[in-house]
């Protein structure tokens, strides 16, 4: 049995892994309370690290944090817990808890191919809080240190008599991912694009190659039953327009830049909503300004 993980160690690990979690901090107390201001706890969908004092109050904090995580909300919330009222605890104090949800990875990238460009692209994406689901059907295709990297999920289904099990690979990636196809084999590329289009829930699909490669694929995919609207969603060649260079690192940088253009805009529409997080009026009541 592993020892309990303190909140700061859990927070650092979950941030590195880009896994959804919430940080709950006691920011103000009155009367008799289980913990002092500054006490913190990290909460995930199925685990809790450290404690705010236990009891029904702590369970309410956990439920509030998990509700935010399940809904995908990332707005900071200031929750008030009158321990004798809302929490039903005999100590009868009053606690304000700041709950800060972190949604985890900003984007999921499904990368099919561990060749020169695939490896360079993984290196280029490494500093970003994105999860990469990396597939290659060849034995020993991944670099030796790949399994030790955070936010990198390796998929290597056994190849049968008819080649790699691309259906299983495509089924294993999350919905809403940005799929990039760049394997060592054109037939495998085509099978992957076919499976991704049939799945129908990718945020985007891109394939490395030339205009002539895509023209050939497009004809065969049309014959396989994909209509023009579906085929129009596939980008080939991939990479930000106007980028030049054929070195693997140059192609990888162009693809990474293109992915940034596909990243959802999380900034608010300031014309409609320039207030985020805890309402200023609430903060002024809880933390009076000094004059």
From TrEMBL:
Residues 15-75 form the XdhC- CoxI domain. Residues 264-291 are annotated as: Disordered. Pfam families: XdhC_C, XdhC_CoxI. Residues 110-259 form the XdhC Rossmann domain. InterPro entries: MoCofactor_Util/Proc, NAD(P)-bd_dom_sf, Xanthine_DH_XdhC, XdhC_CoxI, XdhC_Rossmann_dom. This is Xanthine dehydrogenase accessory protein XdhC. It comes from Halomonas halophila.
